[in-house]
Structures are given as C-alpha cells and as structure tokens.
Specification:
single chain, 514 residues, Rossmann fold, five-stranded parallel sheet, two-stranded antiparallel sheet
Length: 514
Amino acid sequence: MNLITETQKLQNYLKIQDYKTVVNGCEKLIKKFPNNPFLFNLLGLAFHGSGKFLIAIDRYKKALDLDLNFLPAMNNIANSYKAIGNFEKAENYYSKVIKIKPNYFQAINNYANLKTLIYEYSTAIELYEKALVIKENDTTILFSLANAYHAIGDINKTKEIILKILSFDPEHISTHKLWSSIVNYSKDKANLNQMKNLILKNKLSNSQIVDLSFALGKAHEDLKEYESSFFHLKKANLIKEKEYNYNIEDEELLIDSIKNSFEDLNLNNEKKIFEKRKAIFICGMPRSGTTLVEQIIASHKDVFGAGELIYLQRIVNKYFINEKKLSKNKLADEIELSSNNINQDYFKMINYHKFKENNFTDKAPQNFRWIGLIKLFFPNSKIIYCKRNAKDNCLSIYKNFFASDDMKWAFNEKNIAQYYNLHLNLMEYWKTKFDQQIYEINYEKLVSNKEDEIKKMIKFCDLDWDPICLNHHKNKKTPIKTVSISQAREPVYKSSVNSNSNYENYLSKMFDLL
C-alpha cells in the first residue's frame, strides 16, 4: 500500500465533502501507520467538516502528541476550538503557530477571522494586512479586508478595496454583491451591466447564482423595477429552498415544547447568583429593526455593543435541547441547582470581548425564543423586543441572504409567513408571563417619532439620557456584521415603511398567510 497515493485519494474525498469515506480511510491507514501525524490531522479535518468538533480536537491532539510542532494540526485545532466558541484556546494556538512560523498564511487569516467574530476589527485589519504582505493580491484576504472596513463604517476604504479586487478579477461575484449593498443604483449603475452579463454565464455555481440574484434584486428595486427585482429574488430563494428542503414543523415542535416547558414552572425562582454586568437582549424577527435598535443603544457612553452573538443559542443547545425540542425536565433540574451554570457559561464567552462598560447589548434576533430562560438565569438583564409591520418584515427577509443554519426557513414564502406567525404566537405567550419585563419597540413608531421612542427605550434600560443616542449613525464604536449594515449606518429613515406594497402582486401567497 502506497501511503502517499492513499492519502491523496482521501484528500480528494475531503474536497468534495465526503467525510465518511475520509474517516473510514484514515482509520484503516492509522492501523498500519499509527505514528503518522498527517493521518490524524486529516482525520480531524473530516470530523470538523461533519460538525463533530470535539472529536476533531481529540484527533488533532493525537497528531500533536506525535509531533509537538506539527503546524497544520495546530492551526486546525484552533479552528475547531473557534467553532465551539472556545476563543481563548483558539487564540493561543493561532498565536503559537505564528510565533513558530511568522509567515504561516492560513493561521494569520484564521486568526483575523477570529478577531472579527469578537468585533476586534482593528486587530483583524492588522492581521489581514500582514497576510497581504505574504500574498499581495490574494482575493480571499482582500475581500475579508473589505468586509472588515465595511463593518466599521469606513465606506471609502471598502470601495477602494472592492475596486482593487475587480481590477484584476472583474468576475469576482462576492465582491459585486458587496458593492451592491453599498451603492444606490438609482444614482450609480457602475457594476449593474457586469452583473447582468455574469449571471448569463453557463458555469456558475449555485452559490454564485444566489449571490448575483440577490444583488440584482436589490439593484432593480433601487431602480423601482419591481418585476425584475422579484424575478431575481425568486431565483435566489428557489435555489436555497431546494438546497435546504427545510421543514417548518421542526420549528413548530420547538415552539410548542418551549411553551409546554414553562407551564406550571416556578418563574419566581430566579437565580440569586449572576454576573452583575447587565446584558441588554435585543430580539425579534430578523429584519425587524434589531440592528438599528442596537446601534442606538450602543451609542450610549455606558454601553458596549457586542453584536449578534451566538453564545446563548449554544448554551441552550448544550443544556436544554433534546431531539430538536426544549426539555422541560432538564430545565427544571437546572433551575433547582444552587449554581447558575447558564449565566457562568455565557459570561465566560462574553469576557473574551474585553470591554469595560457595565452594560452591553446582545443582538441575536431569535433569542425571542429564549426569553423565559433569560428571565430565569439573567435576572438583572433587560429585554427589548422589536416588532415591525408583518408584510414589510417578511418581504425584507425574502430580499436578503442569510448564511446562518438557524435561518434555513428564510427562503420559502410559506415558511417565512409561518415562522413569523409562530414568533408572534410565542411572544403573546411570553407577555402572559413577563409582560412588564419586556419592552416592545415598534419600528414604525421609532422612525416616525424618533426622539420620544429612543428616550423611552433608554429609560427602560435604566440608563441616564445620552443625547448621542439620537445620532446613532455616527456610532463608529459598534461594528455591524448583519445584512442591515448599510441601513444602520444611515440616519433613521421612513422609506422602508409599507415597502411591501411594491411586491403585493408577487408575494400575495406569503402576505395572505400573515
């Protein structure tokens, strides 16, 4: 058996994401070559690719036991630690790789990506720039750098990098999509014809078609060409819908299990042990105004904007989710403990952000599902629920691409409407339990009566009035990574109110279900 030939075959299977074949092949080879760190590293990559991060970490450790300075395994174990939210260990391994080999390109790039996760964009930009010294015109790094500048609101620098990428790679579709999110096509049609020509090419992948279609949908909407806009949006959504084949019944089961779990539960049994810093949870449907609300609150001098965090979702999955449902027994057991594991685990991850403020925002929209858990395990927290006109909200979801695995329902008209209705049903339930403890901010009221609505919201958060909150669009201290990035950098505007009327003829099936 030729080890090199066999491992090359397995690497090819890894490229096409046939992880089962890679695992089986590596395990057979390891029996014959038990002291080969490369095989354990390859096995780790297969487990990581299939989402089994803890097993991947174990295999990388075995590679490092065989060779303490085996840099690929060191870089990859950092990636797996990053995937499970252990940022401290991930950073330690990335730093160790770079210390041993300062020009290790992959580790520098991965380390920069980690820094963007925790909103340390200045450090991320430095690392991307360092990577570009090694590979001057690397498109992946340049694109990441453009997104980093976009997140911190430096539009001029973002455009500069976009133009640089397109100068030597005019068909870089992700860059065209990024450009489309920045410009208003009624004023600037610079890349519109390029995108129209690109989408006619034969050898585009589905992901490229999706990117171009969403971008063209946005461009035609800017031009008030709604029929053309819908044509492209429908094409993008149909591709993702077929890819995911999502069953909305999974969400229905989860919502039912949440309500069932909180019936006959002692909701006065709040944890007495909790972190004194105050989390302001901003939740609601995606595209309901959560990013705008966070930018307003995080403008306050005493608030740190932590962004759209996945920490609470991870903790809920770890402690309470069983077969896609919330376990009432596990919840009851955790409530009875004298400790507060949920709070401790959450703040262990929050602490990695290294901020000084005593108040911070957590803007994960779908945390509306966990309001009961928040009230039990974060008793000093504040909850702000963002609500928007149902048709406008669902249209905005249909018009945008969401990469999160938690958003697989967002590419089908019926699923979007049903998810909205499920969310509304659950929020009505939470109001019967915690009515006065949830602050509901209405998007339409916020944009029509900005000052009064913002003042009431800041007061609810137990914060002193800070007039800078009225100029949230000037807030540069809170980066934005969501699809709302461009809108949230603008002053409050009303043009999106009742925007659904432009698509009434095309999305009636979705609107009628609301």
